Model the fold of this input.
Amino acid sequence: MPFSSLIDFLGTFAFAISGIRLASGKQIDWFGAYIIGLVTAIGGGTLRDLLLDVRPFWMLDPNYFIATGWALLATLLFKEQLLRWGNTLFLFDTIGLGLFTIVGITKSLEAGLPFWVCVVMGTITGSLGGVIRDVLLNEVPLLFRKDIYALACVAGGAVYFGCAALQLPKEITESAAAAVVILSRWLAVQFHIHLPQLPPIEQNPGKS
Amino acid sequence: MPFSSLIDFLGTFAFAISGIRLASGKQIDWFGAYIIGLVTAIGGGTLRDLLLDVRPFWMLDPNYFIATGWALLATLLFKEQLLRWGNTLFLFDTIGLGLFTIVGITKSLEAGLPFWVCVVMGTITGSLGGVIRDVLLNEVPLLFRKDIYALACVAGGAVYFGCAALQLPKEITESAAAAVVILSRWLAVQFHIHLPQLPPIEQNPGKS
Amino acid sequence: MPFSSLIDFLGTFAFAISGIRLASGKQIDWFGAYIIGLVTAIGGGTLRDLLLDVRPFWMLDPNYFIATGWALLATLLFKEQLLRWGNTLFLFDTIGLGLFTIVGITKSLEAGLPFWVCVVMGTITGSLGGVIRDVLLNEVPLLFRKDIYALACVAGGAVYFGCAALQLPKEITESAAAAVVILSRWLAVQFHIHLPQLPPIEQNPGKS
Done:
């Protein structure tokens, strides 16, 4: 774990809140909301660990389940205030994205994978939870539609391996990469920076 | 296998029927219906085995594919009668839920996992198939919306470890836990017991 | 690898194009389109490798990511021409289906699995990418609704084991099986051959 478990807890909490909030108003009950929050927080790391063929991280530490419980409780108790706390939650969420990306890269490096696979695994760790959340809520994943999200993970991964190529110390490499993830996402949201969208293309009805 | 394979067959049959019925009337062809029935029946155990890093159970026994074939045949031949058989199918389905949950717990215990992970794995075994079914049919999973379903698995898991802590014999522990899953689900449906739903929460447009 | 990597590249390219085209006009940005194209191309083989408990094939070869990049570029540059190229792309896609199915069968045989599991794994390898694509795009998978697609993989798998039972040489077995996949799919599309659809069945509201 390259960062303190406090940041890990806050990232999980913020990811879970983002799942629970999107579940609200969709006739989903408390337990369903808990599961959606949980899957948002741990879905990416779970696929990463399956792909790496290691024991899923959450089997070794119940704190991910506990943080999601706190997220549900906070959402139920303070739903009036959540909008006001939007920026704080966005901060946690973005820090969580940076952290999860670096954890994904580090675990993949330890498994002996080449650098480009590590960047993919960092991106999966940071992004997939939100994709599963949107699929469960029956929406086209936000990730594909707007904001710089997965691309921020890719940028952070590139910086990680740039720093590693320069033989910078591990702490600096990890901090710089996380900072790039966090800053890319933050700047993209602040300044409404989007990638261009794919224009409509005529479809060939014979394909499936 | 803690129960007879007849119960296993009936549970698979009932899970597959629930998938095939929900697929009906959605312009899905026979083979598509077969696949949806199959995934409903084996989806949960497949993720469990991936997470446990053991060979997926259905690779060792073609009966799950055969039971799904019988389910498709029964649905096609007796579609008029299916509604009348609703209670029998619900009974199979609920017994299957209890059985699958216990199988999930037992396999996870054998893998040396702590008790709370075993409860999670039992719940995944019993519930995930229905979630995949609903995602494939492009609906918000029923599991999140109504009825006590996954929560019945959690309750059964708690009873399992309660009995185990009292050092009751394996047979009694497993039977009691399965009975609690089946009874919780049965009572919830009979008496329309639901968890409260998550109220609408104002969304912060900056999050994705 | 039973076929040349050129065919592998073309199959990946065609699968990726089918993902990117279906993503067009849905307010999906370039990076989202890239990911959907990638998942369409590698999703089936990834689940196969997870089920077989081997390292996912794309971790060993960046060409799958590169072919998807070319597919995105081609889609953006030549979107006017794509419809006219429909038959060529359909040819690649169908050849890719045949190839991916055989790769799935061969890898599963090497893992020591019984023949019917190998047919299932070949079908997963060829078909699952398109299912994930449709789930991400929030549609009921085309696979379940029309055309002979997964069934062509099953037919090819049956021919594979028929040839193997006759002790035909490996090259002939693989070519015959791939040809059957390709021909079944091609003929089904040319002559609008469909399986019957599942009729509507009255639903029992108590089930979830």
Remarks:
- The interface with chain B takes residues 18, 20-33, 35-36, 46, 50, 53, 55-56, 59, 62, 65, 75-76, 79, 82-83, 86, 89-90, 93, 130, 135-138, 142-143, 146-147, 149, 189 of chain A (CB under 8 Å).
- The mean pLDDT of chain A is 87.
- The first helix of chain A runs from residue 5 to 23.
